[in-house]
């Protein structure tokens, strides 16, 4: 018998039993080892009809690489040239209008997934290279009518249907923003290009002057304290584009709405942007993710629905982070006449906004002209006052995971930063670029995370990036991204991710002439190459920096092709 602590009890014949039990243990272990050796040796001789198991190396036993049937994927029709599966206007009518939920992510079910290659717009050409691309992109080309066919009216009608005359679009197939926002200097047409002079609704003198004023209000934008930002309702991402030159990396966010292609305009120019909307679900970011958030007349109703949208801004800002607002109701005293409202209404909205922000532990940091800046509390002393039912909004309870993001519904409560994270506030975090290599305090919240694991990963990727650069040079030509990288995705997620659909999605978002670096187990490489060939990619295999056989690198380039349904020149 044993006590609860696992120590052997004082049994009268314990010494007489110890030796036979030890011998039995040794014999069983030896037998298991022997049988295991026989099984492993014989396993490689067994032939299975569907999956052949062979030895890939004389030193190591493993299964043969995954083999799949070669398939040439068909072209999608030309009306899918800007297809966004999870924000597809064709499917909006299936969802409600309340708080614009139809604009949120609604991915199609498996039986509606497309198994075709999304064609580029007619006349697509390699994008303008960075940094010129920040301020311009290809707009249009002219389709010339055929001459000498007026004698035959029927032939003329037929040709006009097949080959219409007049302008065609190149890389961004929309002109709506130019027509609607021409008076606000968002963009303008010049020859074959759209030019982006940096104008906006709230900064008609240009984004540079607007950001200069903002930096006067927030000195932390100049010294490397602020590195990450999010722009909600970004327009054509003029603000985010300007901040790139100032060392601040900005994610520009906007929905796919009547402002056709605003996010596409940003991506075409090489400015980070995603489709998204603050509606009923959290944004796809963990808590404390950004140093600064910005809204320039983004038309988000911040004071409605109990301030639920402000609560999401609060969640994604790190302690001590800044929220910048320009547009209604800021500077209502001078601006209200242009907002189709009354000065009393705008004053009421501003007071309500200030009251909500104060209740969420924001304080007014500075204000000048059309720009107002609030700062999130750096410590948790303010949150101790948020006790339900006396305070609204109340603190979230411990059951609400602050970092849960994908498809997580909003909750009308304040996410209080963890008291364990004290070095992640704006005042304590290292300035950029030193911040890049400093172990983040919240690494301990990651499964298996530690300071040593972070240092190892940092060192590993320095080696990998250096190794990747020994491939031929990468093209800077971006359709959305110039370069995609996968590291062990199928090894980790093959049980729930269909390889075919993952690679088709990569093809959709990768620019023609763009590259994909796929780092995977050798087991998956042949299958990946087969699917890539069906997508008209050209690929070659490379060794990893360690030169091991069990892992390989596949370098693939997407070819530029035009739909067979498009008119010839």
Automatic annotation (TrEMBL):
This is Methyltransferase. The chain crosses the membrane at residues 21-39. It comes from the Eukaryota. It is an enzyme of class 2 (transferase). It is found in: Endomembrane system; Membrane. It is a single-pass type II membrane protein. Keywords: Glycoprotein, Membrane, Methyltransferase, Signal-anchor, Transferase, Transmembrane, Transmembrane helix. It comes from Populus tomentosa. Belongs to the methyltransferase superfamily. GO terms for molecular function: methyltransferase activity. One of its GO terms (cellular component) is endosome. Its main location: membrane. Its EC number is 2.1.1.-. The lineage of its organism: Eukaryota, Viridiplantae, Streptophyta, Embryophyta, Tracheophyta. GO terms for biological process: methylation.
